[in-house]
Amino acid sequence: MIIFMMERICEQLKAWRKEMRPVLVKSASSKTFCVGGDIKEALSKELEILKNLSLFTSLVATYPAPYVALIDGLMMGAGCSIFVHGQFRVATERTVLAMPEVDISHFPDVDASCVLPRPPGRLGYLLVITGHQLEGRQVMEAGLATHYCRSTSLLDLQEALVSCAGLSYLDIERILEGHTQSRSSCIENTIQLDLEDVEMFFSAATIEGIMLRLEHLNHTWAYKTLAGMAVASPTSFKVTKKLLDKGAKMNLQECLLMEYGLTISGIRARVTDFCHCSV
Predict the structure, then answer these.
(1) Pairing between strand 134-135 and 147-148?
(2) Where's the Enoyl-CoA hydratase/isomerase domain (predicted)?
């Protein structure tokens, strides 16, 4: 799993940073972009992994040369850190973004508190609280990808990018525009709710308030969402919502420090309902 290789990856990125090398990131898998890591192993090395992931996130966010990510396939949890702070982020129809941490009685970390409060209509809250997934163009519509490309065109796009030495930002933008498709509004059609409703539900001040608003919606999606929330960790929900609320007013470095401190507190406390799931 890539999160267990982060120390080595960070050293390589530092070396390329000194040389001002453009970076192109893609997956070697035909099905996944990055899905985090095995939760049992991750828990045994939690602080070490979080340190390395936080460093990697900072390196990408401040990388001085073009950083391009081709996001083809499933990406989950901490795997999103691999792409989300790059300047160019290309989704395909096979892209699926999921933040399942609450489902395993954890909370989203490694920059989630910085990234997820910012998509329109409180979509980030929808992702982490309900387990809803964004697919294909939706990832771009939410602002988490910058471009959209058919997966069958990715190889041509990759070849165009790597064939040009010393690519500038303008060169990459020109190549991407030549290989990607324009925006279209599709989020509302897929979740069968309009963004004003999502905003209304998830702008409630508390988790209890969100659940109360959902209870008043006569909709199959609301019933399924409430059923899922009823068996998850209450502490995990509350911590996650507080993280996003606070992160909306903080910069990336502040969010990473907040998440790191919360992880340390969680390791010390190991609250029962926060870790009740069998892993």
Answers:
(1) unpaired
(2) 5-275
- Residue 84 DSSP class: T
Give the sign of the dihedral formed by CA 185, CA 190, CA 196, CA 200.
negative
Query: pLDDT tens digits for 133-168?
Result: 899 988 988 889 999 999 999 999 999 998 876 678
**H helix runs in the chain, sequence order:** 6-19, 39-44, 46-61, 112-115, 123-130, 137-141, 154-162, 169-179, 187-191, 195-202, 207-215, 220-230, 234-247, 252-269
* Alpha carbon distance 198, 132 (integer Å): 12
Angle formed by the axes of helices 207-215 and 234-247, nearest 10°? 110
**Residue that the structure tokens 């790597």 belong to:** 162
What mean pLDDT is reported for the chain? 84
User: Residue 256: which of 110, 102, 95, 122 has the closest Cα?
Assistant: 110
> The domain 2-270: what is its CATH number?
3.90.226.10
List, in order, residues 6 or more apart from 171 with CB less than 8 Å away.
Answer: 164
User: How far is Cα 198 from Cα 178, in angstroms, rounded to an integer?
Assistant: 34
* CA–CA distances in Å: residue 83 to residues 80, 135, 160: 6, 16, 20
155-to-146, 177, 179, 236 alpha-carbon distances in Å? 18, 15, 10, 40
CB-hemisphere CA count at 13 Å for 150?
6
Q: Where are the domains of the chain?
A: 2-270
